[in-house]
Amino acid sequence: MQSKTAHFKENAKKALGDAQLQRVLDKFSTGFPVKRAQAAARLPEFEDLRDAARDIRAHVLDNLDVYLERFETKVIETGGMVHWARGGSDACSIIGDICKSVDAKTVTKSKSMIGEEIAINDYLEKNGVDPVETDLGEYIIQLRDEPPSHIIVPAVHLSKEQVAETFREKHTDLPADRVLDNPRILLDEARGKLREKFLSADVGLSGANMLVAETGSIALVTNEGNADLSVGLPRVHIVLASIEKVVPCMEDAWTLLRVLARSATGQDLSVYTSFVTGPKRSDDLDGPEEFHVVLLDNGRSSMLGSEFHDMLRCIKCGSCINHCPVYAKIGGHAYGWVYPGPMGSVLSPALLGDVSANDLPNASTLCGKCETVCPVRIPLPEMLRQWRNRQFEANQMPTRQRLGLRAWAWLARRPRTYRLVMEIGTGLLTKLAPRNGRFKNLPFAKGWTSKRDLPAPQGKTFMAQWKQRSNGGSS
Ligand code: SF4
User: Fold this and answer.
1) Of the candidates 239, 270, 296, which is a domain's last residue?
2) 191 Cβ contact partners less than 8 Å away, ≥ 6 residues apart
3) Ligand 1 centre from 374 Cα, in Å?
4) Distance CA 61, CA 305 (A)
5) 227, 274 contact by CB (below 8 A)
6) What DSSP letter does each residue of 101-128 carry, written as one string?
7) Residue 307 belongs to some domain of the structure
């Protein structure tokens, strides 16, 4: 997927002015967080499971080479093939070659953010292969030629009316005056269309929620069962997965699964959890004849051992996105690439590897909610700060911002001067404050006052009030 991260500010402004998007986001931001809280409350050992999940992922990253080689050995032992891809174009060529080798015309796909990362659909189309998204959300955005706006609910930015409009426009073989006024009808229509594709596909392309080194299996988690139909019916199954997805054994996979769905959607477990091991065996009734796993690096190995090492613990549950107040206002497209929200603001600059994503780590209030809800306890706010530090050190910030931060850092290291400056500043602003106590316009805080009023200080600084209270006075 082509990166538009350099346009973050314009995209965010546009999103804030989009009334339809704001209505959808308002609903979204209350749904999953409540469900996750309820799911966590139902399971007394949830916090212990999060610790265990964090430790499993950390252990894997410290021994990644060992587990990847073990996984490869097991895949080969069970009749499959493993292909190593350094970058996106390598992965695309490998997948393209496999499709060519079986003269594939249609590929059914289950949702894969790695597939979005390397723009596999564009590559297949250019090479005469028709890729068909089978996750309902992905199917809808494929019809609309849009990128996903969330890693687990890719069409969350759309209303059901917009989906109905798209179906009417694209499913031209169906009666134009049919009723499409509720989600069930829309689902049935998409299901009918996809069924034809499942039955005629030559290749099934899936991602993998996990790669199990002990058995060479891949874990696939969906709520629609589309992954199972995508990969079980065609003659060839290709798995596209990034290297950090490996886990040591089945027991570890289950520990991660127990926190994955609870963190993502508040379900105890996703509706379909499947493990696929190798191609069809001689006594199997069905299944693919060929099983290929494409292991993609695409910048991840250079994150190992860096300040962003822990980001690779991510199990792509989307919980940090669901709880992010910035995402809740601007949605996923504003971020300009595959991964939105806090996880994207850390991951995208690392994977894109240039300054185009510099705005993303700054698009955070650092409220810390993302770390609080992350099932593998990734210190996202700390890593967002690390990106900001890097930008500061590399002189990649606007001069005003840089000078402001320098001045702030100088003051913050001198508590007495800091207090004095704050008292003078507070006193000045209190005197200048309008009668209603709210500034509508301040030259040094234009970004704030262009959208809302800035409350004037209420007399004394926090420190001064604290001191007064500690001395027994009232503030
Ligand atoms: S960073 Fe944590 S909360 Fe966010 S998607 Fe990854 S695992 Fe989930």
Assistant:
1) 296
2) none
3) 5
4) 9
5) yes
6) HTT-SEEEE---HHHHHHTHHHHHHHTT
7) no
pLDDT digit of tens for each residue in the chain (475 aa)? 889 999 999 999 999 999 999 999 998 878 899 999 999 999 999 999 999 999 999 999 999 999 999 999 999 999 999 999 999 999 999 999 999 999 999 999 999 999 999 999 999 999 999 999 999 999 999 999 999 999 999 999 999 999 999 999 999 999 988 999 999 999 999 999 999 999 999 999 999 999 999 999 999 999 999 999 998 999 999 999 999 999 999 999 999 999 999 999 999 999 999 999 999 999 999 999 999 999 999 999 999 999 999 999 999 999 999 999 999 999 999 999 999 999 999 999 999 988 999 999 999 999 999 999 999 999 999 999 999 999 999 999 888 888 988 999 999 999 999 989 988 988 888 888 888 889 888 877 777 787 788 888 877 788 888 888 888 765 5
Q: What is the 258 CA–ligand 1 centroid distance (Å)?
A: 14
CATH number at residue 267: 3.40.50.10420
Domain that includes residue 444, residue range: 412-470
222 in the same domain as 77? yes
Residue 316 CA to ligand 1 center (angstroms) comes to: 5
Q: Which residue CA neighbors atom 7 of ligand 1 most closely?
A: 314
Both tokens of 397, joined, read 């910030």
List beta partners, residue 239: 206, 293
The two three-digit tokens of residue 79, written as one number: 């009749």
**Is residue 431 a part of any domain in this protein?**
yes
**Of 244, 278, 296, which residue is a domain's last?**
296
Does residue 436 sit in helix, strand or coil? coil
Choosing from 46, 374, 382, 384 the residue with most ligand 1 atoms within 8 A of its CB, the one to mutate for a pocket test is 374
Domain count, the chain: 2
Q: Is the CB of 336 under 6 A from ligand 1?
A: no
Tell whether 292 and 419 lie within a shared domain.
no
Task: Please report whether residue 368 resides in a domain.
Answer: no
Is the separation of the CB atoms in 276 and 218 below 8 Å? yes
| Residue 418 forms part of a structural domain | yes
